[in-house]
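Minutes, methods subgroup
Present: GH (chair), OT, SY

1. OT presented the first of two proteins processed in the latest run. Sequence and structure tokens recorded below as shown on screen.
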Amino acid sequence: MRLLLLLCLCLPAALCGQDSLLLPGLPLLTIKTNPLTALNPYKYSASLHADVRLSPRFSLDLGAGAIFDSAFFANEKGESYRGPKFRAGLKYFYQIRPRAAQHLGIEARYTDVTHLFFRSALRQGGRYEEILLNERSVKSYGVSLRYGVQFYLGNTRRLLLEPYAGFGPAWNQVSISLPPDAELLRDRRFITFEFREGTLPWIDILLGFHIGYVLW
């Protein structure tokens, strides 16, 4: 909601200064998405982003979407790995050409995933073993520095391609809901890639590209 409020506050200022912004250079508003996220087997996801020009060299980048499954973390019937994700960033375009513009920026991200999974657990102090459907909450947040290039294609420069890369600190906050007398047994898989319970620092790596359309 705060990101939406910020966007609403910035749009009137951008529209009021439209005459000064309609100079050769950046578009005023671009809608885009990252198609590679739908191919990631660890976290199938989709998102929609908006690039809003604030000044001749600065733009606001906002995005929202959802993680809708995982072939790795939820591969059994009844399991799931889902939740919303949000990104917001500010970009500075230090080189602007008719067909391309390079930028540096900073970006914050947040995801809130609910993971339902089956795991063997000991009950009543180890008296017997039972397979339980457990709920695991994974909240991730971080800030990254990023670099990218926007390419404007077509006769009217409406088609956008934007490869980008970046890195920065991130944190994963994990909690598991269990019955009071249950104790999960260790996962027998050789590789799990699951974060342990608690708050774990991490390095967030950005690597991908956006494809979009210039509205104005």
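2. SY then presented the second protein from the same run.
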Amino acid sequence: MTYDVIIIGGGPSGLSAAIYASRARLKTLLIEKNGCGGQMTVTDLLENYPGFNDGINGFDLAVKLEMQARDFGTEIMYDEVTSIENGVVKKVISINGACETKTIIVAAGTSVKKMNIPGEEKFIGKGVSFCAICDAPFYKGKDVVVIGGGDSAIQEAIYLSNFAKNVIVVHRRDALRATKILQEKMASRANISVIYDSIPKEIFGNDSIEKIGITNTKTNEDKDLQVDGIFVFIGLIPNTLFLSNLTLDKNGYVITDENMNTSIPGIFACGDIRKKQLRQVVTAASDGAQAAVSAQHYIEN
């Protein structure tokens, strides 16, 4: 069987592309290696997604998008794509086989960036976490550190403050990068404090985390923080290792035009994996819609 479009990735951009492609009566397959929704599934509250005045839980929105895509006829397969091949008929190779298609939409998203400091690997899943909504209940009444200063870090710090006794935000700059409304919400939480101009250096502990060492970037002064858990939100890495034949920027993001065309005709990219200024659920959904329409036009022409 040859599909009209194969979508790689089931986050908001991939699901949006699936909805638009299937609704256009294109034979559509979406391949997702974990579960649909991507990183928005670990977001407690999406306050800035249009249409939800009180916000919406990221997992709940993912479920709605997946159901909508399936209702329009999208096939969803759980597998990991390892490479793609270009041609008149393109091929998507995964761990469990290969599928042919007229067009490909790459919506593989990003992965969280690690600190890469001593002790991090030892305690991943045992005190070091990249998901507050997943692990916050384990730290009820305990002290935790959040590494980062962007929207994700501050939003997760606010969520953690509902469980933890104390939340300490460690940020490498002298000012947070998070939007003002999130900073205002954080300031209203008495159990959240911020340490500026500091970076993590090493995690210490035996069976569990005992402390994290940080260094002031201006004074080079070292300091140890006694904590029970560490939550890391310092950036993202595009999932592009399987895309050796597409043009990427210096940071590994896929370069596209405004219609989501990549360097190879018939292959499109959308969402967080592509080079762009703003990475939000709403922009991912918009990218996905445009990618599907571009795929449709490519097939028609």
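Chair's summary of item 2: The chain has two domains: 2-111+236-300, 114-232.
Next meeting: continue with the remaining queue.
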